[in-house]
Amino acid sequence: MTKAMFFDLDGTLTDTHALHIATWLEVLRPYGLEVDMSLYREKLLGLSNEEAVRELLPHLGDGERSELLEAEAKSYRGRADQVGPILGLGALLKEGRRQEMGIVLVTNAPREDARRSLEALGLDEAFDPMIFAEEVGAEKPDPTPYRVALERLGFQAGETLAFEDSPKGVKSAAEAGIPVVGLVSTHAPNELREAGAEFVVGDFADPAVYERLGR
Question: Which of 81, 104, 132 is the last residue of a domain?
């Protein structure tokens, strides 16, 4: 029986990718960069904001980079109330609470961005603990965020289940020994399976999710 569920945020709890694309398009346009889904998936998805800026604009000095990151954060916060949950999320969380499972957030997103997204979803008190990659010294696909989550809960990896939408996230959980369900929101099913997903679903309403929880 599953004792805890781990959830990524962007693309897993909610499809925030369109909001991120709009935000990056706004703040990077002055630098001559037009952000679309292709560029977002190739260069931005799964990276911290600072890593993304270093990847796309390596010539920026520390001061200009900091200003750009502040502009990105402000722009995203203005859009955060537009997010909505992936189908079936509420019912799954309710079932997890009924079974007294641990319900944990494990994300590469900055704490402030995550807080605003969770508030918009009405989930600001749904997860405990919340593991932020920037605060544990390593980001997905490194397994450290998930290993920290396991340590805080005191569970064995095989007693838990992770939900991820990106190959980097899947790899992070899988390398920590955690079984992973892939959410097909931004990546193809085969990409998630190749990264280590046990199986893939389109949303949380898929009966396969509940079947897996009962093992």
Answer: 81
